[in-house]
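The following block was generated as part of the benchmark described in Methods. Ligand: guanine.
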Amino acid sequence: MTLIDGKAISDQIKQEIAAEVAEIVAHGGKRPHLAAILVGHDGGSETYVANKVKACEVCGFKSTLIRFEDNVTEEELLAKVQELNEDDDVDGFIVQLPLPDHISQQKVIEAIDYRKDVDGFHPINVGRMGIGLPCYVSATPNGILELLKRYNIETQGKKCVVLGRSNIVGKPMAILMMQKTYPGDSTVTICHSHTKNIKEECLEADIIIVAMGKPNFLTADMVKDDAVVIDVGTTRVPDATRKSGFKLTGDVKFDEVAPKCSYITPVPGGVGPMTIVSLMKNTLLAGKKAIYK
Ligand code: GUN
Protein backbone atom coordinates (compact mmCIF):
# COMPACT_ATOMS: atom_id res chain seq x y z
CA MET A 1 0.00 0.00 0.00
CA THR A 2 1.30 3.45 -0.91
CA LEU A 3 0.10 6.42 1.11
CA ILE A 4 -0.48 9.37 -1.21
CA ASP A 5 1.26 12.35 0.38
CA GLY A 6 -0.79 15.36 -0.70
CA LYS A 7 1.04 17.62 1.73
CA ALA A 8 4.47 16.85 0.24
CA ILE A 9 3.22 17.15 -3.36
CA SER A 10 1.44 20.42 -2.60
CA ASP A 11 4.57 21.87 -0.95
CA GLN A 12 6.57 20.89 -4.03
CA ILE A 13 4.06 22.50 -6.42
CA LYS A 14 3.97 25.71 -4.35
CA GLN A 15 7.75 25.90 -4.68
CA GLU A 16 7.43 25.39 -8.46
CA ILE A 17 4.86 28.19 -8.61
CA ALA A 18 7.02 30.49 -6.43
CA ALA A 19 9.98 29.93 -8.76
CA GLU A 20 7.86 30.84 -11.78
CA VAL A 21 6.48 33.96 -10.07
CA ALA A 22 10.02 35.05 -9.13
CA GLU A 23 10.99 34.66 -12.80
CA ILE A 24 7.96 36.68 -13.97
CA VAL A 25 8.66 39.48 -11.50
CA ALA A 26 12.40 39.48 -12.34
CA HIS A 27 11.43 40.13 -15.97
CA GLY A 28 9.23 43.08 -15.00
CA GLY A 29 5.96 41.14 -14.99
CA LYS A 30 3.08 41.53 -12.57
CA ARG A 31 2.77 39.49 -9.39
CA PRO A 32 -0.48 37.43 -9.62
CA HIS A 33 -3.19 38.82 -7.34
CA LEU A 34 -5.93 36.67 -5.77
CA ALA A 35 -8.82 38.20 -3.86
CA ALA A 36 -11.11 36.20 -1.56
CA ILE A 37 -14.50 37.18 -0.20
CA LEU A 38 -15.47 35.61 3.11
CA VAL A 39 -18.96 36.05 4.53
CA GLY A 40 -19.56 35.34 8.22
CA HIS A 41 -17.44 33.33 10.66
CA ASP A 42 -18.00 29.65 9.87
CA GLY A 43 -15.04 27.78 11.39
CA GLY A 44 -14.33 25.65 8.32
CA SER A 45 -14.55 28.58 5.91
CA GLU A 46 -12.30 30.72 8.14
CA THR A 47 -9.67 27.98 8.12
CA TYR A 48 -9.89 27.39 4.35
CA VAL A 49 -9.58 31.08 3.55
CA ALA A 50 -6.71 31.59 6.02
CA ASN A 51 -4.90 28.66 4.36
CA LYS A 52 -5.53 30.16 0.91
CA VAL A 53 -4.06 33.50 2.01
CA LYS A 54 -1.06 31.70 3.53
CA ALA A 55 -0.53 29.72 0.31
CA CYS A 56 -0.56 32.98 -1.68
CA GLU A 57 2.34 34.24 0.44
CA VAL A 58 4.34 31.05 -0.17
CA CYS A 59 3.71 31.31 -3.91
CA GLY A 60 4.70 34.98 -4.03
CA PHE A 61 1.19 36.17 -4.93
CA LYS A 62 -0.50 39.31 -3.75
CA SER A 63 -3.69 38.49 -1.87
CA THR A 64 -6.64 40.53 -0.61
CA LEU A 65 -9.17 39.27 1.90
CA ILE A 66 -12.56 40.97 1.88
CA ARG A 67 -14.84 40.19 4.82
CA PHE A 68 -18.56 40.68 5.29
CA GLU A 69 -20.74 39.88 8.27
CA ASP A 70 -23.52 37.23 7.96
CA ASN A 71 -26.12 39.95 7.51
CA VAL A 72 -24.61 41.35 4.30
CA THR A 73 -27.29 41.76 1.63
CA GLU A 74 -27.16 40.02 -1.71
CA GLU A 75 -26.95 43.44 -3.40
CA GLU A 76 -23.92 44.45 -1.34
CA LEU A 77 -22.19 41.20 -2.14
CA LEU A 78 -23.01 41.44 -5.85
CA ALA A 79 -21.70 45.04 -5.86
CA LYS A 80 -18.37 43.83 -4.44
CA VAL A 81 -18.21 41.06 -7.07
CA GLN A 82 -18.76 43.68 -9.76
CA GLU A 83 -16.05 45.88 -8.27
CA LEU A 84 -13.57 42.97 -8.36
CA ASN A 85 -14.62 42.11 -11.92
CA GLU A 86 -13.64 45.65 -12.94
CA ASP A 87 -10.45 45.92 -10.86
CA ASP A 88 -7.57 45.45 -13.30
CA ASP A 89 -5.14 44.70 -10.49
CA VAL A 90 -7.14 41.60 -9.41
CA ASP A 91 -6.33 38.62 -11.66
CA GLY A 92 -8.72 36.18 -10.04
CA PHE A 93 -11.06 35.97 -7.06
CA ILE A 94 -13.24 33.58 -5.13
CA VAL A 95 -16.30 33.85 -2.96
CA GLN A 96 -15.95 31.27 -0.20
CA LEU A 97 -18.96 28.92 -0.02
CA PRO A 98 -21.36 28.22 1.59
CA LEU A 99 -23.11 31.59 1.76
CA PRO A 100 -25.93 32.46 4.21
CA ASP A 101 -29.37 31.21 3.11
CA HIS A 102 -30.70 34.67 2.20
CA ILE A 103 -28.09 34.97 -0.57
CA SER A 104 -28.41 33.04 -3.83
CA GLN A 105 -25.17 31.14 -4.25
CA GLN A 106 -25.86 30.58 -7.94
CA LYS A 107 -26.55 34.27 -8.57
CA VAL A 108 -23.23 35.18 -6.97
CA ILE A 109 -21.31 32.54 -8.93
CA GLU A 110 -22.84 33.73 -12.20
CA ALA A 111 -22.01 37.37 -11.37
CA ILE A 112 -18.28 36.56 -11.30
CA ASP A 113 -16.52 37.35 -14.58
CA TYR A 114 -15.67 33.85 -15.88
CA ARG A 115 -12.21 35.16 -16.85
CA LYS A 116 -11.49 35.77 -13.14
CA ASP A 117 -13.35 32.70 -11.85
CA VAL A 118 -10.32 30.80 -10.51
CA ASP A 119 -12.66 28.47 -8.57
CA GLY A 120 -13.99 27.22 -11.92
CA PHE A 121 -17.60 27.39 -10.68
CA HIS A 122 -19.07 29.69 -13.37
CA PRO A 123 -21.25 27.84 -15.91
CA ILE A 124 -18.92 28.94 -18.73
CA ASN A 125 -15.95 27.27 -17.05
CA VAL A 126 -17.98 24.20 -16.08
CA GLY A 127 -19.30 23.90 -19.67
CA ARG A 128 -15.87 24.35 -21.22
CA MET A 129 -14.46 21.74 -18.85
CA GLY A 130 -17.22 19.35 -19.92
CA ILE A 131 -16.21 19.53 -23.56
CA GLY A 132 -12.49 19.60 -22.89
CA LEU A 133 -11.77 23.26 -23.73
CA PRO A 134 -9.17 25.37 -21.87
CA CYS A 135 -10.80 26.74 -18.69
CA TYR A 136 -10.42 27.04 -14.95
CA VAL A 137 -11.08 23.57 -13.55
CA SER A 138 -12.47 23.48 -10.02
CA ALA A 139 -9.85 22.97 -7.39
CA THR A 140 -10.66 19.68 -5.69
CA PRO A 141 -11.08 17.56 -8.85
CA ASN A 142 -8.01 19.18 -10.38
CA GLY A 143 -5.99 18.44 -7.25
CA ILE A 144 -7.03 14.80 -7.43
CA LEU A 145 -5.98 14.58 -11.09
CA GLU A 146 -2.60 16.04 -10.11
CA LEU A 147 -2.14 13.37 -7.42
CA LEU A 148 -3.01 10.58 -9.87
CA LYS A 149 -0.50 12.07 -12.33
CA ARG A 150 2.34 12.58 -9.86
CA TYR A 151 1.98 8.98 -8.59
CA ASN A 152 1.71 7.63 -12.17
CA ILE A 153 -1.53 5.87 -11.31
CA GLU A 154 -3.05 4.14 -14.34
CA THR A 155 -6.54 5.33 -15.22
CA GLN A 156 -7.06 4.29 -18.85
CA GLY A 157 -9.77 1.63 -19.14
CA LYS A 158 -10.11 1.45 -15.35
CA LYS A 159 -13.46 1.33 -13.63
CA CYS A 160 -13.81 4.48 -11.54
CA VAL A 161 -16.64 4.94 -9.06
CA VAL A 162 -17.34 8.47 -7.81
CA LEU A 163 -19.41 8.62 -4.63
CA GLY A 164 -21.22 11.97 -4.46
CA ARG A 165 -22.70 14.26 -7.11
CA SER A 166 -22.01 17.78 -5.88
CA ASN A 167 -21.44 20.52 -8.44
CA ILE A 168 -18.00 21.30 -7.05
CA VAL A 169 -16.56 17.78 -6.64
CA GLY A 170 -18.59 14.73 -7.72
CA LYS A 171 -19.93 15.91 -11.07
CA PRO A 172 -16.74 17.57 -12.39
CA MET A 173 -14.65 14.66 -11.08
CA ALA A 174 -16.76 12.13 -12.99
CA ILE A 175 -16.52 14.19 -16.20
CA LEU A 176 -12.75 14.60 -15.89
CA MET A 177 -12.15 10.89 -15.24
CA MET A 178 -13.88 10.01 -18.51
CA GLN A 179 -12.15 12.66 -20.67
CA LYS A 180 -10.03 11.40 -23.55
CA THR A 181 -6.70 12.09 -21.86
CA TYR A 182 -4.49 11.13 -18.94
CA PRO A 183 -5.58 11.06 -16.15
CA GLY A 184 -8.91 10.01 -17.58
CA ASP A 185 -10.13 7.45 -20.13
CA SER A 186 -11.81 5.63 -17.24
CA THR A 187 -15.23 4.00 -17.25
CA VAL A 188 -17.07 6.11 -14.72
CA THR A 189 -20.03 5.40 -12.46
CA ILE A 190 -21.51 8.02 -10.14
CA CYS A 191 -23.26 6.84 -6.99
CA HIS A 192 -25.38 9.03 -4.72
CA SER A 193 -27.96 8.93 -1.94
CA HIS A 194 -30.51 7.15 -4.16
CA THR A 195 -28.17 4.52 -5.60
CA LYS A 196 -29.47 1.10 -4.58
CA ASN A 197 -26.35 -1.06 -4.80
CA ILE A 198 -23.45 1.16 -3.73
CA LYS A 199 -21.51 -1.71 -2.19
CA GLU A 200 -21.67 -3.81 -5.37
CA GLU A 201 -20.66 -0.83 -7.53
CA CYS A 202 -17.70 -0.09 -5.27
CA LEU A 203 -16.57 -3.73 -5.22
CA GLU A 204 -16.11 -3.55 -9.01
CA ALA A 205 -14.09 -0.34 -8.90
CA ASP A 206 -10.37 -0.02 -9.61
CA ILE A 207 -10.53 3.61 -8.44
CA ILE A 208 -12.97 4.93 -5.83
CA ILE A 209 -13.28 8.67 -5.25
CA VAL A 210 -15.40 9.40 -2.17
CA ALA A 211 -16.94 12.86 -1.81
CA MET A 212 -20.09 12.39 0.26
CA GLY A 213 -19.31 14.21 3.48
CA LYS A 214 -20.28 11.09 5.46
CA PRO A 215 -17.54 10.21 7.96
CA ASN A 216 -16.20 6.65 7.67
CA PHE A 217 -18.77 5.74 4.97
CA LEU A 218 -16.48 3.53 2.85
CA THR A 219 -15.65 0.34 4.72
CA ALA A 220 -13.31 -2.55 3.89
CA ASP A 221 -16.14 -4.84 2.69
CA MET A 222 -16.88 -2.31 -0.10
CA VAL A 223 -13.36 -2.25 -1.55
CA LYS A 224 -11.66 -4.83 -3.74
CA ASP A 225 -8.01 -5.74 -3.32
CA ASP A 226 -5.50 -3.26 -4.80
CA ALA A 227 -8.07 -0.52 -5.41
CA VAL A 228 -7.01 3.13 -5.47
CA VAL A 229 -9.02 5.10 -2.88
CA ILE A 230 -9.23 8.89 -2.87
CA ASP A 231 -10.94 10.46 0.17
CA VAL A 232 -12.40 13.95 -0.25
CA GLY A 233 -14.27 13.99 3.07
CA THR A 234 -13.36 16.60 5.70
CA THR A 235 -16.07 16.49 8.34
CA ARG A 236 -15.35 18.07 11.71
CA VAL A 237 -16.29 15.30 14.15
CA PRO A 238 -16.41 16.40 17.83
CA ASP A 239 -13.41 15.07 19.78
CA ALA A 240 -12.95 16.25 23.36
CA THR A 241 -9.37 14.94 23.49
CA ARG A 242 -8.24 17.55 20.96
CA LYS A 243 -7.43 21.19 21.61
CA SER A 244 -9.57 22.23 18.62
CA GLY A 245 -12.49 20.15 19.96
CA PHE A 246 -12.85 18.22 16.70
CA LYS A 247 -11.17 15.65 14.49
CA LEU A 248 -11.10 16.18 10.74
CA THR A 249 -12.61 12.92 9.51
CA GLY A 250 -12.68 11.51 6.00
CA ASP A 251 -15.39 9.50 4.24
CA VAL A 252 -13.19 6.38 4.33
CA LYS A 253 -12.74 4.10 7.32
CA PHE A 254 -9.03 4.43 6.82
CA ASP A 255 -7.63 1.85 9.24
CA GLU A 256 -9.55 -1.06 7.72
CA VAL A 257 -9.59 0.10 4.07
CA ALA A 258 -5.91 1.11 3.73
CA PRO A 259 -4.40 -2.40 3.97
CA LYS A 260 -6.48 -3.50 0.93
CA CYS A 261 -5.46 -0.60 -1.31
CA SER A 262 -2.66 -0.09 -3.81
CA TYR A 263 -2.88 3.66 -3.13
CA ILE A 264 -4.89 5.68 -0.64
CA THR A 265 -5.08 9.32 0.49
CA PRO A 266 -5.11 10.13 4.21
CA VAL A 267 -7.30 12.77 5.91
CA PRO A 268 -5.84 15.22 6.68
CA GLY A 269 -2.83 15.52 4.35
CA GLY A 270 -4.27 13.97 1.19
CA VAL A 271 -6.70 15.82 -1.05
CA GLY A 272 -7.08 18.92 1.19
CA PRO A 273 -3.68 20.53 0.56
CA MET A 274 -4.03 19.75 -3.16
CA THR A 275 -7.28 21.70 -3.35
CA ILE A 276 -5.52 24.86 -2.22
CA VAL A 277 -2.59 24.31 -4.55
CA SER A 278 -5.00 23.90 -7.49
CA LEU A 279 -6.41 27.33 -6.69
CA MET A 280 -2.85 28.67 -6.70
CA LYS A 281 -2.25 27.09 -10.12
CA ASN A 282 -5.41 28.70 -11.48
CA THR A 283 -4.34 32.05 -10.02
CA LEU A 284 -0.98 31.75 -11.76
CA LEU A 285 -2.79 31.01 -15.04
CA ALA A 286 -5.02 34.04 -14.40
CA GLY A 287 -1.99 36.24 -13.69
CA LYS A 288 -0.41 35.12 -16.95
CA LYS A 289 -3.72 35.52 -18.83
CA ALA A 290 -2.94 32.01 -20.05
CA ILE A 291 -6.54 30.90 -20.60
CA TYR A 292 -8.54 34.08 -21.26
CA LYS A 293 -7.05 37.39 -22.42
N1 GUN B 1 -16.24 25.77 -0.11
C1 GUN B 1 -15.77 24.51 -0.09
N2 GUN B 1 -14.87 24.32 -1.08
C2 GUN B 1 -14.77 25.49 -1.74
C3 GUN B 1 -13.99 25.92 -2.85
O1 GUN B 1 -13.22 25.17 -3.45
N3 GUN B 1 -14.17 27.22 -3.22
C4 GUN B 1 -15.01 28.05 -2.59
N4 GUN B 1 -15.12 29.30 -3.05
N5 GUN B 1 -15.76 27.68 -1.56
C5 GUN B 1 -15.62 26.41 -1.13
